[in-house]
Structure formats: structure tokens, C-alpha cells
């Protein structure tokens, strides 16, 4: 825990007060921190948050062109499927279950590379992975980088304000960061390079990867459906890039207690299972907090899990060599005991009514 206490760059307003309670900054404080951390003229070490939002801004013109010139029933349908289902599911498959939790293992680097680039590249792995380990260790507690109890804006701008790694890590702690990232295939900076750039990933490699990924997908979409399809799907990726930043606020019930008996079994935090994110991206979030290392989080029959279907298919094809599935443990430890308890309550109620 000590390592995770200081692995992320602490915002100017801090994580907690002297009493250990969560600091809930004002909107002004959050915005001030946001623009300060995007300022690459202040320090080159702000390059990664700037780079992350630069991608979003570069997707905006595609979205505008889509609305102005290519709006039709088929482009709307394509954009909906791409943003809501394909981008969302890929985020679960790649960033969440593989990069962060290592829920499955690829047969070789080729299949890892294919899976990494299945969609338009938007979110830098480094920003997502390290901070998500902290999120699970401190879920809904001070230090959680997207603590929903601090409000919508706190979560929405977390990738800049709360998720980047600290810029003054010791060499030993930086090695631990590298160990958390090495399986992703993202090449690491040396410690000396980290001290220069303030990041795990090198900006020139990140820039090259971005240009190659976007060039490949624009050409592919163009060959399939012309500029209409290409602009529509790139615009859809931009829509998703903004929308995904709202997920943890919603997935942790906006900081309120909204867990439902027999639906949300993890009570150590405020996470909830939501139907829409579950259906379109396999994000049954409360289930995930029960078993974060599981390649499947849709444990019940009606909990569709598209991310799991991809992983399972890749396993059948031989591209995935190993995966972890905690469905059996979910039923044994949580669902079946709950059902037995309810059946017992019903029997007791019937006995009293006949007495």
C-alpha cells in the first residue's frame, strides 16, 4: 500500500485533509489543476496528459464533418455501433482486463499487438493502468483517482488531475511501475529518460504509434466506405473518448449508496452493476470489483459480456494461452448463499403464517 500511496502525482488540493477525510475541491480548483497540468510550456513532463487530450481534440473535426456532411441512417448506425459497442468493448478487453489486471495471457506478441490496435487509439495505457491499480486498492477512499464522492468534474478530468504517475519517483519505485506495465508491450523509458520526460512511455514512440494506428484505420475505413465511413467512425471514437470519462462516476453510483440486494455483492465500495455498460462493453462493475482478475465479469445468464466472448474466442483459436474465470467462485461465495438465505427466510415466513 505504501507504494500505491505515492505512485500518482498528488494534485495541488491533495487527496485528504488532516483528519484523513476526502478533500472535495471546488470546480475552480479542479479546472485550475487541469489547465496547469496540460501546460507543456510550464514543464515538458506535462506532455502525456496534453497528448491524451490532444487526441480527443484531433477527433473533434471528424465528428463535426460527420454531423455536417455525412449524416444518414447508415452512418449514424455505424457510429453508434463503433462508439458504444466496439470502442467500449475494446477498452474492457485491452486496457481493463489485460493491461491492468492480467486476466488472460496472449500466446505471443503478435496477438497482443493485434488486440492492442483493434480500434482507433485514444487512451494511453500508462495513464489508465497505474492509476487503476490505485483505484482498486483505495476504491471510494481518499487517494482513489476517480472518487465519485468528490463529484462529476473530479472524475471527468481525472486522467489529467489524478491519474498520471508522480514525476519524482525513486529508481526502485520506477522499476515497480515498469513491472506493472511490462506485459502490455509498451516500451519503457529508462530511469534517466523518465526523469527527463516524467513518464513511463517515450513521447516519440507514443507519437509514432498514434500516427501509424490512425493512418491504418482511416485508410481501412476509407477503402470500405469512403470518407463518409472514415469520418463517421473517427467522430464516433471522439464521442466515446469523452463519454468514457464519465463511466467511473456513474459506475460508482455518483458517490451515493445505490447497491441492490441480490445484484451488487461487493459492499467494500460503491460500485454497481449497470445494464447498459454491461451489455455494450462487458462492464458489470460490481462483479468486477468482486473478482478484478477475472476475464469474465458477466457471471449471470443475462449478463452479456462481449469482452469475455472475444477472450474466449481467442482462446479457442489459440491466440490466448491462459485466462482466469471466477464464475464458479461467484456462485459459490455469493449468489448461491444469497439464494439459500432468501429461501430460508421464505420458509420461516410461511411457518409463522401457519402458526
Task: Describe this structure as you would to a colleague.
The protein folds into two domains: 2-324, no CATH class; 330-355. The protein is 61% helix and 2% strand. It has helices spanning 2-6, 27-38, 47-69, 73-100, 109-116, 125-137, 152-156, 158-161, 171-181, 191-197, 203-243, 247-251, 275-281, 285-290, 306-317, 327-354, and strands at residues 104-106, 320-323. A two-stranded antiparallel sheet has the order 1-2. The longest helix has 41 residues, at 203-243. The chain is globular. The N and C termini lie far apart (55 Å). The relative contact order is 0.14. The model has no long low-confidence stretch (mean pLDDT 95). It is found in: Membrane. It is a multi-pass membrane protein. Residues 72-293 form the Fatty acid desaturase domain.
Give a quick summary of the entry.
By secondary structure, the chain is mainly α.
Features:
2 strands; single chain; 355 residues; two-stranded antiparallel sheet; 2 domains
Give the helix/strand layout.
Layout: H1 2-6, H2 27-38, H3 47-69, H4 73-100, E1 104-106, H5 109-116, H6 125-137, H7 152-156, H8 158-161, H9 171-181, H10 191-197, H11 203-243, H12 247-251, H13 275-281, H14 285-290, H15 306-317, E2 320-323, H16 327-354
Amino acid at each position: 500500500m505504501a507504494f500505491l500511496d505515492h505512485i500518482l502525482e498528488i494534485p495541488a488540493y491533495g487527496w485528504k485533509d488532516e483528519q484523513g477525510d476526502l478533500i472535495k475541491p471546488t470546480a475552480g480548483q479542479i479546472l485550475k489543476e487541469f489547465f496547469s497540468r496540460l501546460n507543456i510550456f510550464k514543464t515538458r513532463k506535462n506532455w502525456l496528459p496534453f497528448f491524451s487530450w490532444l487526441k480527443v481534440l484531433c477527433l473533434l473535426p471528424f465528428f463535426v464533418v460527420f454531423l455536417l456532411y455525412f449524416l444518414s441512417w447508415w452512418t449514424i448506425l455505424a457510429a453508434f455501433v463503433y462508439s458504444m459497442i466496439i470502442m467500449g468493448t475494446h477498452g474492457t478487453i485491452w486496457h481493463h482486463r489485460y493491461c491492468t489486471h492480467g486476466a488472460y495471457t496472449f500466446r505471443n506478441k503478435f496477438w497482443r499487438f493485434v488486440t492492442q490496435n483493434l480500434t482507433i487509439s485514444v487512451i494511453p495505457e500508462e495513464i489508465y493502468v497505474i492509476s487503476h491499480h490505485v483505484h482498486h486498492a483505495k476504491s471510494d477512499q481518499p487517494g482513489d483517482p476517480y472518487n465519485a464522492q468528490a463529484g462529476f468534474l473530479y472524475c471527468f478530468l481525472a486522467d489529467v488531475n489524478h491519474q498520471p504517475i508522480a514525476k519524482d519517483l525513486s529508481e526502485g519505485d520506477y522499476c515497480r511501475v515498469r513491472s506493472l506495465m511490462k506485459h502490455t508491450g509498451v516500451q519503457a523509458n529508462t530511469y534517466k529518460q523518465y526523469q527527463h520526460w516524467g513518464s513511463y512511455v517515450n513521447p516519440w514512440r507514443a507519437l509514432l504509434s498514434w500516427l501509424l494506428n490512425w493512418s491504418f484505420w482511416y485508410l481501412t475505413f476509407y477503402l470500405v466506405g469512403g470518407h463518409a465511413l472514415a469520418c463517421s467512425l473517427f467522430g464516433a471514437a471522439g464521442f466515446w473518448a469523452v463519454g468514457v470519462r464519465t463511466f467511473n462516476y456513474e459506475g460508482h453510483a455518483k458517490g451515493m449508496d445505490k447497491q441492490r440486494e441480490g445484484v451488487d455483492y461487493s459492499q467494500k465500495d460503491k460500485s454497481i452493476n449497470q445494464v447498459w455498460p454491461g451489455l455494450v462493453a462487458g462492464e458489470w462493475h460490481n462483479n468486477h470489483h468482486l473478482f478484478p482478475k477475472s476475464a469474465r465479469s458477466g457471471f449471470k445468464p443475462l449478463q452479456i459480456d462481449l469482452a469475455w466472448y472475444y477472450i474466449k474466442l481467442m482462446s479457442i483459436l489459440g491466440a490466448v494461452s491462459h485466462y482466469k474465470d471466477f464464475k464458479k467462485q461467484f456462485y459459490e461465495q455469493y449468489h448461491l448463499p444469497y439464494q439459500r438465505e432468501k429461501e430460508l427466510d421464505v420458509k420461516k415466513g410461511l411457518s409463522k403464517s401457519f402458526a
